[in-house]
């Protein structure tokens, strides 16, 4: 697949660093497909980079034609809905689960929404990721690169080099490194604070 026609998907659990990765890839040279309906806020000061039609992919995948040569964000549970008639490069963000849960809880509290039982959410995420990672290797239409949000923040050049290679080697890696704002890494687990 040529660089200009590739459909690039940034995916992962909620609060796993997908918005940061979207911003980095966009600034690196692959334009983001976004509708800007969900604007930047305290939880994502640089924006969410979301595209609403992604949520309806199972019933209406028509938006995929507009995604060629671009990068689009898709929560991990929706990867199952991508039709095998297209080929995708999937950048899958991993993050320390305790950081994800901390970040999600703080966001829900700020929004005045109820916070679910932490152990139940952790278990649901674990089950989801295990099932997804067992399914993905058999999907010939999905080419996968897993990146660690935690590594990206502590060792950006090596992670961005891996990403650039995966996405064809044409990205502006210096601009991507410069787009990382360590001040926005606010929910650190005890393990990453050491």
Brief overview, please?
This protein is α/β, with parallel strands linked by helices. It has helices spanning 18-28, 97-110, 118-135, 149-154, 156-166, 173-178, 190-193; strands at 7-12, 70-75, 88-94, 142-148. The chain has a four-stranded parallel sheet.
Task: Characterise this structure.
By secondary structure, the protein is α/β, with parallel strands linked by helices. It has a domain of 131 residues. Helices cover 36% and strands 13% of the residues. The chain has seven helices and four strands. A four-stranded parallel beta sheet has the order 2-1-3-4. The radius of gyration is 16 Å and the shape is globular.
């Amino acid at each position: 697949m040529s660089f200009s026609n590739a459909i690039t998907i940034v995916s992962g659990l909620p609060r796993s660093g997908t918005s940061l990765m979207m911003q980095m890839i966009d600034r690196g040279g692959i334009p983001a497909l976004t509708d800007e309906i969900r604007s930047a806020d305290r939880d994502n000061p640089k924006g969410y980079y979301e595209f609403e039609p992604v949520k309806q992919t199972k019933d209406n995948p028509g938006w995929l034609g507009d995604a060629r040569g671009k990068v689009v964000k898709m929560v991990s549970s929706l990867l199952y809905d991508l039709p095998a008639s297209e080929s995708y490069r999937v950048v899958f963000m991993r993050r320390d689960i305790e950081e994800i849960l901390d970040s999600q809880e703080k966001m829900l509290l700020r929004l005045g929404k109820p916070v679910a039982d932490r152990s139940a959410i952790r278990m649901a995420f674990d089950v989801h990721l295990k099932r997804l990672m067992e399914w993905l290797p058999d999907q010939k239409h999905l080419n996968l690169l897993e990146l660690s949000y935690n590594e990206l923040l502590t060792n950006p050049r090596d992670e961005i080099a891996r990403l650039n290679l995966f996405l064809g080697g044409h990205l502006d890696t210096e601009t991507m490194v410069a787009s990382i704002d360590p001040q926005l890494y606010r929910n650190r687990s005890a393990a990453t604070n050491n």
